[in-house]
Write a structure and sequence with these properties.
With 76 residues, the chain is an alpha+beta fold. It has a single domain, classed as 2-Layer Sandwich (GMP Synthetase, Chain A, domain 3). It is 42% helix and 28% strand. It contains 3 helices and 3 strands. It has helices at residues 2-12, 41-45, 50-65, and strands at residues 20-26, 29-35, 69-75. It has a 3-stranded mixed β-sheet with strand order 1-2-3, covered by helices on one side. Strand 1 (20-26) and strand 2 (29-35) form a beta hairpin. The two termini are 22 Å apart.
């Protein structure tokens, strides 16, 4: 699941080396903290948050197959 998230994020940004994804597990839920460079933050979030919403939807679909709950936070 983390690999898919990383692939999607890196395909959107220009500074691929600045992408950092931290995984935190709590019971049956997983929280991913995504950090990208400030220049790429707009590309990842998208207009009115549509890109971020789409990324969350894809990762949640994968998590549902594994009976887990996932949240994604985009950090500055």
């Amino acid at each position: 699941m983390k690999e898919v998230l990383e692939l999607v994020i890196k395909s959107l940004v220009d500074n691929k080396e600045d992408v950092v994804i931290e995984e935190k597990q709590e019971n049956k839920s997983i929280c991913y903290e995504v950090k990208v460079s400030k220049d790429d933050m707009g590309k990842v979030i998208g207009k009115q948050g549509k890109m971020a919403k789409a990324i969350r939807t894809v990762v949640r679909a994968i998590a549902t197959k594994e009976n887990k709950k996932v949240s994604i936070e985009f950090l500055d």
